[in-house]
Amino acid sequence: MSASLHRPAATRPTTDLMRRTSLAAGILYLITFVSIPTLGLYRPVRDDAGFVLGAGSTGGLMAGALSEVVVALAGIGTAVVLFPVVRRQSETAAIGFVASRTLEASLILVGVISLLTVVTLRQDVAGGPGADPAALVTAGHTLTAVYAWTFLLGQSLMPVFNALCLATVMYRSGLVPRVIPAVGLVGAPLLLASDVAIFFGAYPQGSPAAALAALPIAVWEFSLGVWLTVKGFRPAPVLTGAPRPAQGSPELSHA
Fold it and tell me: Which of 83, 78, 85 minimizes the C-alpha distance to 158?
């Protein structure tokens, strides 16, 4: 009788911790969607060769750059927050998730730096004595090309590996309804194929085909964020069991 009375008190701290973890992860996942408006905010610098020479406002570009910095930090945050939970199911997947998220954030920041450099050229070089408009336009094109490639490798390719690591764990553990990670597992190879096609010039970034290929991964990440924020983790053995030891560890060798 006393054991049954003490059990809720023993398990409540773990339950509360997991709810806080799921809430933090869910909110961070939702924050990663704040950069969606950059598709429009960056249009002037992408489409107007004269932007670096002083045409148009820089307000949209600066707002887009700030939102992408937030996304990069939130992306790392999702990996850090979920690492202890994912590690309970698979340490390899947990490390892979953190690594791919970190690489994604790094590439996002490189892209942001390239566009902010366009702003610096515009403010400090264009219009100054001895400025070469043709050279500035070439530099602007180069920097926007850097952004395009970092976007492909960072915000398009890295989510493939994010999904393969995290969705696999979520599907096997049952921490969320399996339909959610299933969308990610289906979308990962689809987005990978699209990225390869873009890489070899089959169609451009931003085309309808590219947008369609990216949709399942977007649905997976958004639905995961909503579920973790509103519902939290579902009851699963992985939440109460100890982290699985790595292969070759003393725990396995003495089992």
Answer: 78
pLDDT score at 12? 59
Give the residues of the chain that fall short of pLDDT 50.
1-10, 242, 245-255
For residues 178 and 117, is the Cβ–Cβ distance under 8 A?
Answer: no
Res 241: pLDDT:
61
**Per the structure block, which two tokens stand in for 177?**
């309804």
Among residues 104, 95, 96, the alpha carbon closest in space to that of 76 is found at 104
Q: In this structure, what are the phi and psi dihedrals at residue 93, rounded to the nearest 5 degrees? A: -65, -35
Q: In the 3-class helix/strand/coil scheme, how is the chain assigned residue by residue? A: CHHHHHHHHHHHHHHHHHHHHHHHHHHHHHHCCCCCCHHHHCHHHHHCCCHHHCCCCCHHHHHHHHHHHHHHHHHHHHHHHHHHHHHHHCHHHHHHHHHHHHHHHHHHHHHHHHHHHHHHHHHHCCCCCCCCHHHHHHHHHHHHHHHHHHHHHHHHHHHHHHHHHHHHHHHHHCCCCCHHHHHHHHHHHHHHHHHHHHHCCCCCCCCHHHHHHHHHHHHHHHHHHHHHHHCCCCCCHHHHCCCCCCCCCHHHHCC
Cβ(25)–Cβ(45) under 8 Å? no
The pLDDT assigned to 249 comes to 40
Q: What is the pTM of this model?
A: 0.86
Q: In this predicted model, what pLDDT tens digit does every residue of 53-105 receive, in sequence order?
A: 887 788 999 999 999 999 999 999 999 999 999 999 999 999 999 999 999 99
**Around Cβ 94, how many Cβ atoms within 10 Å?**
22
